[in-house]
Amino acid sequence: MPIRKAEAEWKGNLVEGAGRLKVGSGAFEGPYSFKSRLEEGQSATNPEELIGAAHAGCFTMALTAQLSQKGITPNRIYTTAGVKLDKIGDAFAITRIELQTEAEISSMTRHSRRLRLMRSKTVPCRKL
Amino acid sequence: MPIRKAEAEWKGNLVEGAGRLKVGSGAFEGPYSFKSRLEEGQSATNPEELIGAAHAGCFTMALTAQLSQKGITPNRIYTTAGVKLDKIGDAFAITRIELQTEAEISSMTRHSRRLRLMRSKTVPCRKL
CA dist A113 to A78, A99, B120, Å? Predict the structure, then answer.
């Protein structure tokens, strides 16, 4: 299996300085900062939303894989992630990631119960 | 603390279908696929490199925070992440994330030993 690469760079102190994140494929490179990490309404990224995208993406692909193994082709699977960052003592930790999945699949009567169970999957996380 | 959002969408079966990932800030939106997940040399992203960017970014910012608390402003901190995905039984798991950090900091004599210890930090991961 390939080892996936990514990198981070920071210049300056915590509050006034700024960072950049880059993934190995080249698909994404962009800034992040103290402000984009902790405040709402920022256009720069933060580590938590990248983990959210990874988690939603992995779950969506895993669900597709399970369906494909049974010969079922989904029209569309759509998953949202909500990543909760909390201050615990002097440090920060992701305490919860909530995934919500909707699946549009033709002729799903036989499998509908199982999918409903997966629709509101909630994934508690260990402290990072 | 804000709850960070992200989303994933998949259309079609596992091998021939394709997905998209998007982060809540709007800083990144792009495709991912079975091929970009498991093969080398792909221009599309995969969940593992997003986790790598998040991990490298978080560690770099945390190191900056510790330095800033001591009144030390780094010129540049640079961290690379290597994320190892392995097949374990019928499933896949991230078995290791390796972070390598270099720091350029003026007048670091007093703190150099501590930083050297952090430079080759290796972070074993639990099965996701």
Answer: 18, 18, 48
> What pLDDT, in 10s, does the model give residues B10-61?
999 999 999 999 999 999 999 999 999 999 999 999 999 999 999 999 999 9
What whole-number distance in Å separates Cα of residue A114 and Cα of residue A94? 28
* CB contact (8 A) between residue A44 and residue B24: no
**Distance in Å, alpha carbon of B63 to nearest chain A alpha carbon:** 9
**What's the pLDDT tens digit per position in A54-91?**
999 999 999 999 999 999 999 999 999 999 999 999 88
Count of CB atoms within 10 A of residue A80's CB? Answer: 18
State whether A128 and B45 contact (CB < 8 Å): no
Residue B54 forms contact with A (CB below 8 Å): yes
Residue with tokens 């402290």: A127
Q: Is the pLDDT of residue B90 over 50?
A: yes
Question: Beta-carbon neighbour count of residue B44 at 10 Å?
Answer: 18
* Chain B contact for A105 (CB, 8 A cutoff): no
CB contacts, 8 Å: B12 with chain A: 73-74
- Model confidence at B108, pLDDT cuts 50, 70, 90, reads low
pLDDT at A110: 54
For chain B positions 62-101, those within 8 Å of chain A (CB to CB) are 64-65, 67-68, 73-87, 92
Q: Min CA distance, A91 vs chain B (Å)?
A: 9
Q: Is B22:B29 a contact under the CB 8 Å cutoff? A: yes
